[in-house]
Amino acid sequence: MNNFLDKSDLNRKDVDEIVSDTLKNCDDGELYLEDTKSESILLDDNKIKSSNYSSDLGFGFRAISNEVVAYSHSNEISKESLKNSSQNLKSTLKSSKGTYNHEIPKTNNKFYEDINPIEQKSLDSKLEVLNKVNDYLRKKDSSVKQVTASFSGEQKSIEIIRSGGEALTDVRPLIRFNVSVMLEKNGRKETGVYGIGGRQSYDEYLKNDNWKNVCEEALRIASVNLDSKPAPAGEMKVVLGPGWPAILIHEAIGHGLEGDFNRKKTSAFHNLMGQKVASEGVTIVDDGTIGKRRGSLTIDDEGTPTEKTVLIENGILKNFMQDRLNARLMNTKSTGSGRRENYKHIVLPRMRNTMMMNGQHTQDEMIKSVNRGIFAVSFGGGQVDITSGKFVFNCTEAYEINNGKIGSPIKGATLIGDGPSILKEVSMVGNDMMMDPGIGTCGKAGQGVPVGVAQPSILIDKMTVGGTKL
Amino acid sequence: MIKGQEYLKSKASFCLDLAKKLGATDVSVTVGNSISETVNFRNKALDESNRSDSLAISIQTFVGKKKSSISSSNLLDENLKTLIEKCIETTKITPEDKFNSLPDQDLLAKEIKELDLYDETHLDNDKKIDYLRELEDTASKDEKIINTESSFSENRGNFILANTDGFCNGYKSSSFTASCVTVAKDENSMERDYEFTSRCHLNDIIKPKNLGNIAAEQTIKKLSPKKIGSDKISLIFDKRIAKGLLSSFASAISSSAIARGTSFLKDKIDQQIFSDTINIFDKPDLVKGLGSQYFDSEGVKSETLKLVEKGFLKEYLVDTYNGRKLELKSNGRSGGSTNLYLENGKMSFDELLKINSKNLYITETIGHGTNLVTGDYSVGATGFLIENGEFKHPVNEITIAGNFNDMFKNITLANDLEFKYSVNSPTIMIEGMTVAGK
Predict the structure, then answer these.
(1) Which helix (H) or strand (E) holds A396?
(2) pLDDT at residue A94, as a whole number
(3) pLDDT of B252-302, one tens digit each?
(4) What pLDDT is recorded for position A1?
């Protein structure tokens, strides 16, 4: 376990005193200490382009009085620096008359091991894998014109010190392995990208030469796109494949169900609790407890153990995702969804692994039922306007469907829809639920956090496809 | 207090000396400190205060043509020593790359012209609160506005860049930023919009009343939008969206995208890529400019570039490494473009709206539908239908799509350029794109 005070002029008693004194008339707050070791190694254009190692240490001190959050962070863990922060918080909340809420649930669960993935694999062996990826792809297909492959890994150690001296700790490993390939044929260029990752050592993901599967998938996506035709424009039926396409769920409804937007009534969902927001048979959960997944956490960044939160059950809106602040102001409990990118940022309610559960249908049935539409298999990313509820996501692999049959691949296009109504357009839910490969990062208010998504195949009766072909 | 030049220089030279001693042939170090103080308001009350004090050091070590780098926020000598040892160890086992090196010495910045990038004025949080209160009082006047969120942030930074070829320079900069996000509601819809101001000097930011008024007006105008049918229609991009297209252009001419062959503008130097009325400049020495710099992130001097002249592509944005690959000299754009802008067109905004009887005016796009390899563009959009120069009704839940190769050749510009961001464009019209709607 990291001892944050080792190299400083502070001892544990000083810290407890400063924290308790700063938070004495506040409703909540904590001192959050963080030490992150991270690396990224990149092969590009036939060469090891960069190898970077980074070590980042700092604290974030938060005091909350009613709705007001005061925050101060610094890299210098010292008595002077902590006292300056304390002074800054006190001066913002000078008239605070709150009562500190000491209650915080405990857990004995652990959803990943205390490992440092960077140290568990030598630099030489990482370089060897990257070079093998480059050689393999370039030999495999002469139209391969560019290969980029990368490892990124980190170990983040955190400690949360609450008023009264309670301390909570967590050590979080995270890795990602990524391959991107560009093909050029008959004057056309297309790229394909694939990656894998989660909260285990690199070698867990690279067992049995699994890097080859990652290469094959990136190559397959790029090859499909070389033959793509312009995408259609307009409203039509859309079949989404299982797994990663669940970023539709993440964008369309996930963000709209985060506690802060609903407390502030700026979410299109804020007045829909208990109401039907999706077709029958649609159940969506946000789960932070799946072992070793990218979006999982043993405790969130306020110290609350994570849980499996049911958001929508059989079409009915059941719960929002909450951190402690928004839960208190909405008279409910934190769902263990309080997260921050790092010590430089305040806590916000965020998603973890957002999943649509299995239904009865097969993907085949869905395709057969469509006269004119598209079948979307893979996506780049998405975005949502919380207030209007409009969301988009970008296809990176998609096909047209004509008379119940999958036709030609189509060029990348943006799909746009309306969050509160899109799930009512879901007419079939598949029985082939799959998790994504462990690559998602969600952005909100300038903060990126690792997340996961999962879903079975689904059929959406009406969505606008943003192609160029009328 | 922000750390002074002397402190930063002493850290930088400690690292240079130590890395040399441990076997590095060349070394480059950047060390900086940034402090920001932000106050957030919501519905006319304090919501959040945030003070941030960040130290950062990054070190690149070369052993011959081998290179590696480390970065850290912990500037204690003991920690730096451990990291530098690790970095050199890594460098030695990283394969050689013949293009790795420090920049050419004769390209390093020597003279420095004063650009007035630092305003030492400190605004107390209570004063920031006064600004935000006045802003939100104005923004919330109309009863259709149901939520206001605003923010004021004061940022200052100082840094030193030093390398073993004798370069050692750095400077302070500041920015003052205020923003307002409003939510409006009527019986049919709820909409959000925003306005924002950012300047190096406190006195240059927009007055709070104006900021609040603009945000509220823009939001109310968006209420009760309609979806329109799919069509090929002339699109007019508001300045705040037009600058995004220009940023995509800048990414596509970065020397790294060109050297890797992953840009649709590769091998297009001296070819016509825009309509022949288009000129694009990148000017690093704009006084008080938000993108201004005395030198780039490698210490290379940067001068004004005419990137596009009468529609012809004249230059890429070149750094040292990719420049070597492309057999070009660095033009001081290691950090990308500086103050990038499209030169004004000939006609007024009103005249532009009237060229075609029917236009879609785009005020917001969402999604990441820009493919720089192919030039394909497809994003979600929000805006207004304009007929015969008049705003008819708001439009949403549509997408707009095209390909940059065609889009760039079909641009017509208004003459309303202003320097509000580091990338700036007048209002632009593009014909021939596809709108997907009903």
Answers:
(1) strand A390-402
(2) 87
(3) 999 999 999 999 999 999 999 999 999 999 999 999 999 999 999 999 999
(4) 52
CB-based contact B49 A70, cutoff 8 Å: yes
The vertex-B71 CA angle with B66 and B75, nearest 5°, equals 125
Distance, first Cα to last Cα, chain A = 60
pLDDT recorded at residue A3: 82
Q: What is the pLDDT of residue B63?
A: 97
Taking phi first (over 0 means left), then psi (-120 to 50 degrees means alpha), and beta for anything else, what does residue A264 get? alpha
What span, in angstroms and rounded, lies between the C-alpha atoms of A176 and A437? 10
The region that residue B261 occupies, defined by phi over 0 for left and psi between -120 and 50 for alpha, beta otherwise, is left
Strand partners, A195: A178
Amino acid at residue number B313? L
pLDDT digits (tens, 9 = 90+) for B211-243: 999 999 999 999 999 999 999 999 999 999 999
* DSSP secondary structure code for residue A256 in this structure: G
Contact A181, A192 (CB under 8 A): yes
- Beta-carbon neighbour count of residue A403 at 10 Å? 9
The predicted structure's pLDDT at residue A2? 65
Distance of CA A424 to the CA centre of its chain: 25
Are A56 and B73 a contacting pair at CB < 8 A?
yes
- pLDDT tens digits, B304-321: 999 999 999 999 999 999
Candidates A325, A324, A350, A345; CA nearest to A59 is: A345
Instruction: Residue A298: name the closest of A118, A105, A154 by CA.
Output: A105
Per-residue model confidence (pLDDT) at position B392: 96
Looking at chain B, which residues constitute the CATH 3.30.2290.10 domain(s)?
Answer: 5-221
Q: How far apart are CA B400 and CA B410, in angstroms?
A: 15
What residues have CB less than 8 Å from B40, skipping those under 6 apart?
B46, B47, B48, B49, B50, B149, B150, B151
CB pairs < 8 Å spanning A and B: 248
Express as a percent the part of chain B with pLDDT over 70: 100
pTM of whole model > 0.90?
A: yes
Encoded tokens for B229:
């049918």
Say how far apart CA A59 and CA A73 lie, in whole Å.
6
Q: With a cut of 50, which residues of chain A have pLDDT below it?
A: none
* Paired tokens of A162: 């609450």
DSSP state of A403: T
Q: A9, A6, A31: which is closest to A18 by C-alpha?
A: A31
* H/E stretch holding B84: helix B77-93
Which residue in the block uniquely carries the two structure tokens 């924290």? Answer: A19
Query: How high does pLDDT run on average in chain B?
Result: 96
Assess B98–A contact: CB distance below 8 Å, yes or no.
no
B379 and chain A in contact, CB less than 8 A: yes
CA B393, CA B385: separation in Å to the nearest integer?
6
Q: How many CB atoms are closer than 10 A to CB A371?
A: 10
Alpha-carbon span B20 to B25, nearest angstrom: 6
- Taking only Cα atoms into account, the Rg of chain A, rounded to an integer number of angstroms, comes to 24
Q: What is the mean pLDDT of residues B396-413?
A: 96
- Residues of A in Cβ contact (< 8 Å) with B436: 233-234, 416, 464-467
**Cα–Cα distance measured from residue A467 to residue B400, given in angstroms and rounded to the nearest whole number:** 8
Alpha-carbon distance B416 to B92, whole Å?
54
CA distance B258 to B322: 8
| Domains of chain A, CATH where assigned | 117-157+168-226 (3.30.2290.10), 233-466 (no CATH)
* Optimal mutation site among B2, B50, B223, B382, interface A, most CBs of chain A within 10 A: B50
CATH assignment of B5-221, among 3.40.190.10, 1.10.600.10, 1.25.40.10, 3.30.2290.10 = 3.30.2290.10
| Tokens encoding B165 | 């070829």
* Chain A residues within an 8 Å CB radius of B232: 470
Residues B265, B269, B273, B276, Cα dihedral to 10°? 160
